[in-house]
Design brief:
alpha+beta
Length: 135
């Protein structure tokens, strides 16, 4: 229709910032965070304890956060890196922020939410050996 071909975006949303997977304590541990509204941004600021960078005027609006998303992601990643994915998730959710630990099959199948009725212990994954799989 427009003559443009969609290109891969990776872990990116054109309407949300911050939005992505952020590193946490532990080997290959991550948390997924998505901020869609100014209200959620205020919740994130409160959860983080309002560090100075969150009060920078360039992050005050959704447009500003989108425009400066890379700097925003760096600041947030620095904060999450010193905490467990579960701690970050619990804290952010308690402030109305969409957050969830990034989970592989082993993690997902051991949680009450995801493990109930969606996992079968029959897959063999070369890297992990015998592992639960999502059905």
């Amino acid at each position: 229709m427009t003559g443009r071909v969609m290109q891969p975006r990776g872990n990116y949303d054109p309407t949300m910032a911050p939005y992505g997977n952020y590193p946490c304590e532990g080997e290959d541990r991550w948390v997924s965070i998505a901020i869609a509204t100014d209200e959620e941004w205020q919740g994130l600021k409160a959860a983080l304890g309002s560090p100075a960078w969150t009060s920078d005027p360039k992050f005050a609006s959704r447009y500003g956060r989108l425009k400066h998303r890379h700097e925003l992601d760096q600041n947030l990643a620095q904060w999450t890196a010193g905490r467990s994915a579960e701690t970050v998730t619990e804290l952010l959710q308690s402030h109305g922020v969409a957050a969830v630990p990034v989970m592989g099959p082993r993690n997902a199948c051991s949680t009450p939410t995801f493990g109930s009725g969606v996992c079968t212990p029959t897959s063999t994954i070369p890297r992990w050996g015998r592992s639960p799989s999502l059905t």
